From TrEMBL:
Alphabetical UniProt keywords: Cell membrane, Membrane, Transmembrane, Transmembrane helix
Name used for this protein in its record: ATP synthase I chain
Compartment(s) of residence: Cell membrane
Key word Methyltransferase present: no
InterPro entries the record matches: ATP_synth_I
Main location: membrane
Organism per entry: Clostridium formicaceticum
Entries under Pfam families matching the protein: ATP-synt_I (PF03899)
Segments passing through the bilayer: 12-30, 36-59, 71-90, 96-114
């Protein structure tokens, strides 16, 4: 369980670092910067919340019977997407939150997960580029 928590913390720190860098760049690029920064913070918080909810869902689902786990995981999946939909709707309607900042805050998590867990895996790329004859 500690390995899972360590991975979650590593990904959360990565998201905060990447979005911090994006926020600093936004201060110089966005005019005015506060709505973009508010949207970025809003999207980041929701992305991290959804990531944690996903972890809790998976931890509980593995303890359930297969049919119960399927129903439970599907219902939580829908709930997480409803949350994202509400967040995006709020960011589009609110004048003090920039929708692009919210979207960037939400999707940054996906890029950090790919970078930390997939692109750092050399065996993954070796398997992709392995010749068919070698199998």
């Amino acid at each position: 369980m500690d390995g899972i928590w360590d991975t979650q913390l590593k990904i959360m720190k990565g998201v905060l670092i990447v979005n911090g860098i994006i926020g600093v760049l936004a201060v110089f690029i966005a005019k005015p910067p506060m709505p973009f920064l508010t949207g970025l913070l809003f999207g980041t918080m929701i992305a991290l919340l959804n990531f944690r909810l996903l972890s809790l869902t998976l931890n509980k689902a593995v303890q359930l019977q297969p049919h119960q786990a399927r129903v439970y995981a599907a219902s939580r999946y829908i709930l997480r997407y409803i949350i994202i939909g509400i967040v995006l709707y709020i960011s589009v309607k609110a004048e003090h939150i920039h929708a692009l900042g919210t979207i960037i805050g939400v999707i940054t998590l996906k890029f950090v997960v790919l970078q930390k867990e997939l692109f750092n895996n050399k065996q993954y790329f070796k398997n992709i580029f392995k010749r068919k004859e070698a199998e």
